[in-house]
Amino acid sequence: MKFTLSWLKEHLDTAATVDQIVDAMTMAGLEVEGVEDPAAKLAKFTVAKIVEAVQHPNADKLRVCQVDTKDGRLEIVCGAPNARAGLTTIYAPIGAYVPGSGITLEARPVRGVVSNGMLCSAKELGVAEESDGIVELPDSLAVGVSAAEAFGLEAVIDFEVTPNRPDWLGVRGIARDLAAAGLGVLKPDATKPVAGAFPCPIEIKVDGSACPVFAGRLIRGVKNGPSPEWLQRRLVSVGLRPINALVDVTNLISYDRARPLHVYDVAKLTGTVIEARLGREGESVEALDGKTYEMTPEICVIADGSGAIGLGGVMGGESTGCSEATVDVFVESAWFDPIRTAQTGRTTGIVSDAQYRFARTVDPQSCVPGLELATRLILEMCGGETSEVRVAGEAPAAPGPIVFDRSYVRKLAGLEVAAHRVDQILATLGFTGSGNQVIPPTWRRDVEGKADLVEEIARIVGYDKLPAEPLPEMARPPGGVLTLRQRRMRDARRTMAARGYSEAVTWSFTARAKAELFGGGDAALSLANPIASELDTMRPSALPNLVEAAARNANKGFDDAALFEVGPNFRGDQPADQWTAVTALVAPHLPKHWGGGAGDPLFQLKADLLALLDELGAPALQVVQGQASTWWHPGRSARLQLGPKLVIAEFGELHPRILKALDAEGPMLAFEIDLDAIPEPKKKGLKTKAALELSPLMPLRRDFAFLVGAETPAGDLIRPILGADKALIAQARIFDVYQGAGVPEGMKSVAVEVLVQPREKTLTEAEIEGLSGRIVAAAEKAVGAKLRG
Amino acid sequence: MTDLTAMQADLSARVTAAADLAALEAIRVEALGKQGSISELLKSLGKMSPDERREQGPKINGLRDAVAAAVAARKAELEAAELDARLAAERVDLTLPPPPERKGRVHPTMQVLDEMIAVFAEMGFALAEGPDIEDDFHNFTALNFPPKHPAREMHDTFWLPEDANGERKLLRTHTSPVQVRVMQQGQNRSLPAWIAQGQAPPIRVIVPGRVYRSDSDATHTPMFHQLEGLVIDRNIHMGHLKWTLDAFIRRFFESENVGTRFRPHHFPFTEPSAEMDVQCDRSGGSIKIGEGTDFLEILGGGMVHPNVLRNCGLDPDEWQGFAFGLGVDRLGMLKYGVPDLRDTFAADTRWLEHWGFSAFQAPNPATGLS
Asked: If you placed Cys at A618, which of A427, A598, A613, B217 could pair as Cys (CB 3.0 to 4.6 Å)?
């Protein structure tokens, strides 16, 4: 919403400057977005008078003028044909930047005569697109008056109108709040009703669900034409285009009172009935924007004997609009339902000042006052004779009184405000009532309860006056404020970063086809209004996003990304379908190293995964190969399970088919942990740890080489070995796997180091032999392993 | 009689001349071994008369001690030389690089979130969470956005398709639906434990999370992060909100001198409503917080609207409190000078390495936030 200082002063008696007004608006909740001040651009330009103008000695088209300026009498060379003695015009001093021509003036001779400045045209000043000669101003203007003042240009204040305050869409509403904020006094509304000379010959009918109340009257014998200069200037100042007096009056009142009106050329109406009703299928209206819109039963239309002629509260129709030829005019001042008007705006795409105001709720009591104001202005500008006012329907009921105990201001805002000051603020804002009863004004439909009244008091007193009061002390959870899951997310993030992975935050959505690659893509998770088809489906996994991110990095020349993300994935649209994953991805292309390679990077990834799970407090998990999801390389992927069913993580190399579909160069390694599936450790009252048992006896290490089937998972040896004697065997670790010469075809040799920790006494040779026998027997029983001879 | 003096001279010379440990050992065996020349002399003492023994004993023992000392000294020398030679051979070129490693980083938005959580944890706020896919009730209706109200349009909502019941889920446009989940009394308790359940006042929680708006330019992305705060008690008023936000701003920007401005605004779910601006300087092309005379809007809040309390089953005449919300990504950009919001979600490794944080920079009251 835009307005100027002079417009504001029509309603507010004030001496405040633009800066003071902007500050007061900001502190009263009118968020100023900008002030455009043409005076700033024209600061150096002032009124001057030509005293004498003679032909330039060396140029036919130039004149040498003696000019009275604020800098004294100066000799200025001018090429304009209208530069003549006695002319009041605009002078630019040496050093001034001329906006219309983009030059900065220098004192230099023009064909041998030094020009001590410049006389300017409107185009050179940037205030007109075209101009013929230098500016001609009334003689009454004194030398030295600023150009901005001479042209009547002023600062335009632009601010954001919050949806609760449609009354700010009229300058009078702004003035009222500024008066309450102490910036001046609201001028009384001088609009007096105009008595009608005859009954309104046009009948009005309303359908209450489309248009609850509709006031109108006919003014006959008007002479339409361009509106007066003050009105045109006012409209132009806020970016509106003057059209003709009748239309300009409606636009003025829309911006002055937040009261949209519409005018019909009576000669173009069919019949004598105007009706506001719901649209009918098959009807269409050519609106004033020149476009034709199909009507529906959702839209409020204005109809005459010929059918729909306009969209009520949104835009009038081309067929009945007023032109300079209009003689009899029918003025509409109605109240359209906000929700219906908002919907019509959405479905038709029409953005108009009327639609904007009605959608935000116009004051329902403003129909007749707005009509009276319009009548007065039209009669002043266009003459004519008015009918009586005709009103159909009934305005929605005014809000009822609110019970307001003044001490609630202290209770809710913490602000001490004397009761009389509270009452004074409410009265200035238009609230009425007595005692504890406060009745909001009809233009304040947003005020519904006592909290709203506290806001009125607090914002007018000023939020800067609110005391800053520390929060009361409150018992804290002794174990910190994070839940275990929240701690795990945090620990996962920092563990992964410490292990060389960079944290990515990627969209929660992906393309549907990509979601399908990772087991997602359910129609229920596809957005109805995605921002792009690439981002149209909620992701089943962060993997497609991380693969694409790694590929993007590779395309820029950085093909060794190690990324992770801690974030949500979606199995369905229910709250329980959202799960938290830690997803990591490695493009295993570390730079070449002089010391040689570091082995299969998949095992480095496995190390990172196991270290992370350990950090997160996960119990020991079983590695199950051959059952991982379809997006993994079938031979180079596995699951980590707790028991036979609960899958905690999957890891491995991504399937080349998936990488190809995502346009990524492989190989890429990844894991995904279902953070929510990691069980909580058993609850303990205190944080005491179990006692530490350190045996004073030397542990001993024994190596075993087993022959097992080539397809047998080597890791399956460990659990039976550990189980051979749980008291003595502290650790078993595979340190070599070998196939080839010396090992029978179809077999492999797996070397295991077993750490034996005696507990009570040093073991005898015989005891060690016995233990070895039990280890070998357990390995044989579990996986058919034979000790290698 | 053997010439002990000559023998000592000879052995000493040979010991000194021994070129390596093996030669030295041969000399030692020859002199001091079981059948060594000096050992033989020592054995001969037993056959001597007491007088003779009294005279020869000290001499022979002296010879033995001198030679043994010479051998030990030479052995130490040779061992030192051998170690030196071995170490010289073990020299490596330490100008060579170590094996390549990746520099892991915590994402700046997540770091900033941890910073915010640290500040609010000190004030006693716990964390509450809720789902990203929400229903109309939690995201709008319960928060006093009436159905079809124009205020809903300001949220550029992403919608999911209609389900069999004709209901449409949406992607939450703010973290405020979690306010409802935290406050709402007597709700369905079959949800996963991580989703906030209704709790009885007093309430003091923050709600971090992803939020979604169908909007995209340099300062808007279809997904971003918000942090919501909610305090409900019997006597919490707007002055507490002002203090909380002021204290947060000073702690977050780690400066006592960041000016703030608290001014009225409108949100459907708070009444009175406010926005807070921080003092800044925009003159140099980038925004400097805590300098200059300009202001920049950074968060919004207000007293929880009585209708919201009622919608959650709380009596607004008994309970009142405040709520606020702030943009995590945006505040992080302002604090650390990140220029473009869109880069935040692009996972460019160079960007992450530059703007990200070390794993060990976890915000902590002892070391400060950053």
From this structure: A613
